[in-house]
Amino acid sequence: MGKLHKATARACANIALVKYWGKSDEKLRLPVNSSAAVCLDKLFTRTTVEFLEEVGEDAVEIKGGFLSEAEKRRVSQHLDRVRALTGVKKRAKVNSENSFAKASGLASSASSFAALSLAAAKAAGLNLSEKELSILARQGSGSACRSIPGGMVIWQKGKGDSSSYAYQIFYPADWKLRILLVLAENAGEKSVSSSEGMKRALTSPYFALALKEAKRNVLLIKTALSKNDWKLFGKVVEDECFRLHILAMTSSPSIVYWQAGTLNIIHRLLLLREKGIVGFFTIDAGPHVHVVCQGKDVAGLKKGLAGVEGVERIVDCKVGGKARLEKKHLF
Ligand code: PMV
Prior knowledge:
This protein starts with 6 loop residues before the first strand and ends in a 5-residue tail after the last strand. The longest helix is centred in the middle third of the chain and has 20 residues, at 207-226. The protein contains eight helices and 13 strands. By secondary structure, it is of the alpha+beta class.
């Protein structure tokens, strides 16, 4: 067992390009299909962990936010995984801050559990490899495994716990990839959690077909990247967006994550595309639209999307880096 000390980590959120929307193992958070994602530099979580107290409970706080008892328990369960790996018995103090609002389809659980995994492992004296950290993060929240390597990533489904993790993949540098996060109004906290949504996905009559499509789309996105095929890349991204939302809308009971603004944004993007200003849309479990685009189209897209009814604001992101340790602590 290594020496205990205070540790702080920072991890970016990620937006899925090929979606994760169904688990084959609830407890281990193993996905039914491999997925792909890109990390977002402007959306991140910073978390400080220190194992301090011999007895009592973990003290978990989020700066400027509120955590329910269930959420605190989920953090404690994750700390238990780290304690089990190291033999550390002490309770921890955990402080966290997000650069964005949690639980409105902005993948805060991904950045949170990635930052928590790295900070807690370090605080407990563990030196995990990137692969081991990705596996640990996945056990806390599936999509969090993709926030460990940073950049553009594939989360390989794997055959079990030890082979289900994310790794970085190459994308053409000349794309100068950007992601415009277009926030829809009236988002609030999302109505149905992704965990619940994924359980319900199994009730969709289209589930088996959607799974087949996901497998095909992982292969297609790899082809698009290796062949520098922007059009194919965009086609897969948008097909995958609809795949998730069709599953959600046809689940029992059905889930509609979109708001009026969501559809307005899609229509505006299609119009702009006809004029040669290209941005591909994708949407997670919430109403906001992530527009994946090339650097050359950013100005045109921002101008074209400004003033669309139901749009709150636009956050212009570059591709985010890997989860990393920081010297400045939160307490
Ligand atoms: O890891 P979770 O439970 O936050 O799942 C997130 C699932 C989506 O963000 C909706 C899709 C994805 O692939 O990230």
